[in-house]
Design goal:
The protein is mainly alpha-helical. The protein has one domain (26-247). The chain is globular and about 55 Å long. Helix content is 63%, strand content 0%.
């Protein structure tokens, strides 16, 4: 993960799309909200969910336990796919459910897009996301370590998706047939709702194409990032990001 951050920073410095995107204030605020989210969701919630997993392991539970798979490799592949499609659906539901949207909107109120945007999530959004993911994994009988493995795979990709960097067109075109590339994800951060309600996937682009939410961008970046009526400084400060769910009434 550290290496992917370094490479993404380096790429932003060498070939930025938006020349004036980076600022210390913007990056530090996104980092602080991530730190709060990490302490709330990744540490506290993750700790208690692992305890639940340990209890369940004493009495194995889940679909994959009742229908045993031929090998751990099969469990790993199916588990990664399940978590990836689970993320897709939770992300899509977060755009449609008014209460989840209020939490998820914090990620979309960023009027700039760079790798620090990767870190910008409301703590309760990550709590809900982790609970969904881990709960589904336990129901299916997918071990927690499979979630951890998938996160290690996805983190570098997510940083590159948000990076303010221009990538070779041929490189992106080849990857975009399988993965969610930066060009595809930038459209998801467009201020236009018809555009940001597309390309929900984090890893595989398969789910968007399969479930009808894929949209091919017309350019390397949308004209404007952010959310309508949420472009003021009020939504950019750390306390403003924490209070955004109370500021937003509708879309």
């Amino acid at each position: 993960m550290v290496l992917s951050i370094i490479v993404a920073f380096w790429s932003e410095a060498l070939s930025p799309i938006d020349q004036d995107s980076w600022s210390f204030e913007h990056t530090s605020r996104n980092f602080i909200i991530w730190l709060l989210s990490f302490l709330c969701a990744d540490f506290l919630v993750g700790y208690y969910w692992v305890d639940i997993q340990a209890i369940i392991q004493q009495q194995p539970f889940g679909i994959f336990y009742w229908l045993p798979l031929p090998s751990e490799w099969m469990l790993l592949v199916l588990g990664v796919l399940i978590i990836d499609v689970a993320d897709y659906f939770f992300h899509r539901i977060s755009h449609q459910n008014r209460y989840l949207w209020r939490l998820h909107a914090v990620h979309h109120t960023d009027t700039k897009l760079d790798i620090s945007t990767t870190l910008r999530s409301h703590p309760l959004d990550l709590v809900a996301s982790n609970a969904w993911k881990i709960g589904l994994a336990l129901m299916c009988g997918v071990p927690i370590w499979v979630i951890g493995f998938r996160e290690l795979l996805i983190f570098p990709l997510i940083f590159f998706q948000h990076a303010n960097a221009a990538w070779p067109v041929k490189f992106e075109n080849r990857l975009s047939s399988v993965l969610v590339t930066p060009v595809l994800h930038r459209l998801h951060h467009s201020i236009i709702r018809a555009e940001h309600d597309t390309n929900y996937g984090e890893g595989l682009i398969l789910w968007d194409k399969l479930f009808g939410t894929f949209q091919q961008p017309e350019s390397v970046r949308p004209q404007k990032y952010g959310l309508k009526n949420c472009e003021t400084q009020k939504y950019q400060t750390v306390d403003g990001m924490l209070l955004t769910p109370f500021y937003i009434n509708n879309r």
